[in-house]
Specification:
The complex is a heterodimer. By secondary structure, chain A is α/β, with parallel strands linked by helices. Chain A has helices at residues 10-13, 59-67, 106-109, 116-130, 137-143, 160-173, 190-206, 218-224, 242-247, 252-259, 276-281, and strands at 18-27, 33-43, 48-52, 74-79, 82-83, 99-102, 178-182, 210-214, 227-232, 235-241. Chain A folds into two domains: 13-98 and 185-260 and 276-291, Rossmann fold (3-Layer(aba) Sandwich); 105-175, no CATH class. Chain B folds into two domains: 7-91 and 173-252, P-loop containing nucleotide triphosphate hydrolases (Rossmann fold, 3-Layer(aba) Sandwich), CATH 3.40.50; 100-170, no CATH class. Classes of the chains: A alpha/beta, B alpha/beta. Chain A: It comes from Quadrisphaera granulorum.
Chain lengths: 291, 270
């Protein structure tokens, strides 16, 4: 995803953090499904890349396969040049704890019986064991905009948005090189959504980590992602710098997707839903990646 | 059933107060008019969902309410559960964020639709079935006759929401409460549902209360918008006025949090 920008970003100068090549995920069926159909992507240090597309397009399968949670039928995934092994029943080797994930629903990803401080410290412990810099749980709480005195609180005392902030704190406390976030804001409330997404961006870029941000919320993606990948039927049909993609979408699918977002201008216009004829054009081959 | 003229008041909320342990909603006034979509915006915890739950008589038992909610002259606050059951689903229908909440997972779509219309409208079996097919046709579910024999999980999220809307319309209600009806859907699917809501409101003279945090959705379909903050309506305006010239600081703040505006917490490099 490195761009040929005249003022190259840090990402363009150094080797990418995440390199995915020819990734394929299949589900046996019946009927058998190719959920991810030969996807390649790169994310540099401090770079935020969004993955958008409709439900069922394969974005969650892609995220899970990158993490090694989903079995890869073929293709490779490397973080800082080292392959990411499939996740087994055992704990991940320490060297691979640089890959962290934030899930959609913080009420299921946090342990209800343990204090916030203890759960954030799980992340911090991993970072310390690797010899990476991290901070105390109270400091992490403060960084995600919560009260540092809340370390002894439990998840049930928090709202959905606050819980997601804790999940983010835990992931970042592990000093990840790559953070994969699968619909991290869709279970949250509107104004909270933007704030949490903005927080994820600022904290991951501050530590020079790569962020793969998966969302069906195009408005938020537009605000936080350096570049955007558009996925349809298991393939990346278009990719490029976010603003460029927004201003001048090339692939018919991207055009339909962006055209369906209602504009808050008070004009009372309902965007046209894609017609069958339009849907028929979505299967067209991917457009070349833009610089 | 005779329909009120377009624009005439159908449901009037006056000085509504809700207390659950502590006061949560204060002095809310709203008027839903035939064929019009009244938007209700605000963050979670602002009282917008509590207000719509009060209309349905679905507040928890520990809640106390003050003020008045009047449906075409009938006071709803203080009705017994039995009296409310006659109103809920028949005269006031609802659509929620998660269509699965309105549909039983183990009963076919056809059975649910026909049970619903037979119970409330006292139709015979054949008539109820014809009505069900007609409703599914109206909400543009493909192959309605065969859709009747399928279960909710056999439909996509967007189709399920269409079926939930069909259920809501089944008894020809006067009022439709739609709480975040498109929030869980893809934008491409959302557009179709918004068109459907707009059409049924107009053609049936349905008074709609649309609760949403998405100001894009609000701008697309609402005729009038009320903005709630901390249990109070802080601003009320026509759609055009609200977006062109928001008066209350909180409304301005909501509009400023929209995409395209600058992101203070993490400025983009572009």
């Amino acid at each position: 995803m490195a761009s040929d920008d005249p003022a190259p970003t840090a990402a363009a100068e150094t080797a990418p953090v995440l390199v995915v090549d020819g990734l394929v995920v299949r589900y046996p069926g019946p009927p058998p499904v190719v959920a991810v159909d030969g996807v390649s992507l790169r994310i540099g240090a401090g770079e935020v890349v969004a993955l958008v597309g409709e439900s069922g397009c394969g974005k969650s399968s892609l995220a899970r396969a990158v993490m090694g949670v989903e079995r890869r039928a073929s293709g490779t995934v490397e973080v800082d040049g080292a392959p990411v092994a499939p996740l087994g029943l055992r704990r991940r080797p320490l060297a691979q704890t640089g890959v962290q994930m934030v899930f959609q629903d913080p009420s299921t990803s946090l342990n209800p019986r343990r204090s916030l401080g203890a759960q954030i410290d799980d992340g911090a412990a991993v970072a310390r064991a690797r010899g990476s810099a991290t901070a105390e749980p109270a400091v992490w709480l403060e960084r995600v905009g919560l009260d540092p005195a809340w370390t002894s609180r439990h998840p049930h005392q928090l709202s959905g948005g606050q819980k997601q902030r804790v999940a983010i704190a835990r992931a970042l406390a592990a000093a990840p090189r790559l953070l994969v976030a699968d619909e991290p804001i869709s279970a949250l409330d509107a104004s909270t959504q933007t704030a949490v997404a903005a927080l994820m961006r600022s904290l991951t870029t501050a530590v020079g980590a790569a962020l793969l941000f998966i969302s069906h919320d195009l408005s938020v993606v537009r605000r936080i992602a350096d570049s955007t990948l558009v996925m349809h039927a298991g393939r990346i049909v278009e990719s490029g710098p976010t603003e460029l993609l927004w201003d001048d979408p090339q692939h018919p699918y991207t055009r339909s997707l962006l055209g369906a977002v209602p504009v808050p201008d008070g004009a009372g216009r309902i965007p046209a839903a894609p017609t069958e004829a339009e849907r028929a054009t979505w299967g067209d081959p991917a457009v070349p990646e833009r610089a | 059933m005779s329909r009120p003229a377009g624009g005439s008041p159908v449901l009037t909320i006056r000085d509504l107060g809700i207390t659950i342990g502590r006061p949560l909603v204060h002095g809310v006034d709203l008027e839903l008019r035939a064929g019009r979509i009244q938007g209700l915006a605000g963050e979670s915890g602002s009282g917008k969902t509590l207000t719509s739950m009060a209309v349905l008589g679905l507040l928890p038992r520990t809640a106390t309410t003050t003020g008045s909610i009047s449906l075409a002259g009938t006071e709803l606050l203080g009705l017994t559960e039995r009296q409310l059951r006659d109103v809920r689903g028949r005269r006031i229908a609802m659509v929620f964020q998660d269509p699965s909440a309105s549909l039983h997972p183990q009963i076919t779509v056809g059975q649910q639709l026909t049970d619903h219309v037979r119970r409330h409208l006292r139709l015979g079996r054949a008539q109820a079935r014809a009505r069900a097919v007609e409703l599914l046709e109206r909400v543009q579910v493909p192959a309605p006759a065969s859709a009747l024999g399928r279960y909710p999980h056999q439909f996509s999220g967007g189709q399920r929401q269409r079926i939930a809307i069909a259920m809501a319309l089944a008894c020809d209600p006067e009022v439709l409460l739609a709480d975040e009806p498109t929030t869980a859907l893809d934008v491409t699917v959302q557009a179709g549902i918004l068109h459907l809501l707009r059409e049924v409101a107009t053609e049936r003279g349905l008074a709609v209360l649309l609760v949403t945090h998405d100001l894009g959705v609000m701008s697309a379909v609402a005729d009038d918008v009320a903005v709630m903050q901390q249990g109070r309506v802080v601003e009320r305006a026509s759609r055009a006025e609200l977006f062109a010239a928001p008066q209350h600081p909180y409304t301005r703040q909501l509009l400023a949090a929209l995409p395209g505006s600058s992101l203070e917490e993490a400025p983009r490099g572009l």
